[in-house]
């Protein structure tokens, strides 16, 4: 893609970069025992979601909790009430890539791309509890120090007779699609 017409020099730049990413979608059932025997489920929702994330090995572990509020009728559908229960969870998010060249300590960020949502609630076979199905999704990133090698143009880089040339006509869209963004070599 480029050619060296003259002698060139390289410089190593240490910078912070995204060194790992991952995404995880999950569905988790929770059983809520009620004070009254439910006749029917009128609604359910998840609220007050909090979580923390940390890197554990080659994945990110997210530990969190949220409340499940369940609106139901009882006494042969003559009365209603809302039951609320706090549930805890742990989700392990595998990393789709992890750059082993990251140095020192890393920063872990996690984003809830879909907060906990109750998608189903049904009375259990025994009739005194409700099973609520909750789905959620997380996106995680690992940020750390890495080393990048850049080529310096000798003289004036605007002069085509010196340094490296990259002609737009020479670059095809297939070349860009085939670029490996994880090809950074450890130069130590």
Brief write-up:
This protein is an all-beta fold. The chain is 3% helix and 68% strand.
Describe the structure.
This protein has one helix at about 175; strands at about 5, 10-35, 40-55, 60-75, 80-95, 95-100, 105-125, 130-150, 165. About 5% of the residues lie in helices and about 70% in strands. The radius of gyration is 27 Å and the shape is rod-shaped. The longest helix is centred in the last third of the chain and has 5 residues, at about 175. The protein has about 190 residues and is mainly β. The chain has one domain (about 10-150).
Give me some keywords for this one:
disordered C terminus; mainly beta; 3-stranded antiparallel sheet; 9 strands; 3% helix; disordered N terminus
Q: How many angstroms separate the termini? A: 26 Å
Structural class: mainly beta
Globally, the shape reads: rod-shaped
Number of helices: 1
Give the number of DSSP strands.
9
Roughly what is the average pLDDT, rounded to an integer?
83
Q: What is the total domain count?
A: 1
Unreliable sequence segments: 1-5, 184-188
Radius of gyration: 27 Å
Largest sheet: 4 strands, antiparallel
Spatial order of the strands forming the largest sheet: 6-2-8-7
Order of helices and strands: EEEEEEEEEH
Question: What topology emerges from the helices and strands here?
Answer:
Elements: E1 3-4, E2 9-33, E3 38-56, E4 59-74, E5 79-94, E6 97-98, E7 103-123, E8 129-152, E9 164-165, H1 173-177
């Amino acid at each position: 893609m480029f050619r060296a017409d003259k002698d060139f020099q390289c410089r190593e730049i240490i910078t912070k970069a995204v060194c790992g990413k991952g995404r995880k979608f999950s569905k988790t059932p929770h059983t809520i025992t009620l004070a009254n025997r439910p006749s029917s489920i009128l609604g359910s929702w998840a609220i007050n979601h909090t979580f923390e994330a940390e890197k554990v090995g080659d994945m990110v572990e997210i530990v969190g909790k949220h409340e499940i509020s369940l609106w139901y009728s009882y006494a042969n559908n003559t009365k209603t009430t809302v039951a609320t229960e706090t549930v805890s969870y742990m989700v392990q998010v595998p990393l789709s890539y992890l750059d082993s060249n990251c140095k020192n300590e890393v920063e872990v960020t996690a984003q809830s791309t879909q907060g906990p949502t109750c998608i189903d609630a049904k009375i259990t076979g025994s009739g005194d509890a409700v099973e609520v199905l909750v789905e959620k999704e997380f996106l995680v990133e690992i940020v750390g120090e890495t080393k990048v090698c850049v080529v310096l143009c000798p003289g004036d880089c605007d002069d085509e007779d010196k340094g490296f040339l990259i002609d737009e006509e020479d670059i095809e869209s297939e070349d860009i699609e085939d670029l490996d963004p994880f090809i950074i070599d450890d130069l130590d």
